[in-house]
Design goal:
single chain; 25% helix; Type Iii Antifreeze Protein Isoform Hplc 12; 287 residues; 2 domains; 6-stranded antiparallel β-sheet
Amino acid sequence: MGPRRIIVLLIALVAAGGTAMYARSWVAGQQTNVTVVQAPVSQAEIYEVLVADSDLPAGTFIKPRHLRWQQWPTDDVPDTYVLNGPRSNEEMIGAVVRSRIAAGEPITDGAVVKPGDRGFLAAVLSPGMRAVSVPINATSSHSGLIFPGDRIDLILTQSLVANEGEGTIRRVSETVLSDIRIIAMGSDTRDDPVEGQSNERAKTATFEVTPRQAEQVTLLTELGKLSLSLRSLATPATEEVADLQQVSGLTWDRDVSRVLRSGRISTRLLVLRGADSQDVQVQEGRN
């Protein structure tokens, strides 16, 4: 074999070896790319964060429908966010929003005030309003079926001495405040009652009132018995105006009792017989 043929053969062997190495490298690269593309995303790297499902204005009582869980990447989850698993959305039910939370914005502990927290009642009140409480019982609170968020009229019933010296007692009722919002029954501030549950054991009702009304309610508790009259959620505006006009009206015991209207009255007559005189009591019907 001549030198020229040997050289050609060596060149061919070198070229074949290079081609084989290139092919092997290319196949390995393709396999690596396929493996990277098809690798599943680890579920441990995805968290669910509690966010607002709709805009929540300040003072809103948080209910289940206001919340939802939203997936969040692990590299962007502050410690103040509520994570599904370590915590539950039940923690936020019944809390009150401090300042507006936009839809999709995470719910944080600092954005709400929970029942029992300092400042909770102040967060419930509308700007400029006051909270005042009055004693109640099962009868005056509709057997505990009035809940925070309901609106009521406040009725005062008094017992008065009609004729001084005779000891005649007259009773009268009047609506003293109209369209007042209940913000707590006892210590319960939930406006979404549990089915079958009532506030029958509540001893106080707390109202949202103006500063002037707060003074009036404080005085009313000293005058007589207070009762709550539940208002319809669908009260027309015309009825509200009519109610306000009726606030100063009075309902006396004779207006509701036929016995008192038709009761017999003792009347004294002076009967003269010659030089004699005699006092006679005469019973007559009252129209």
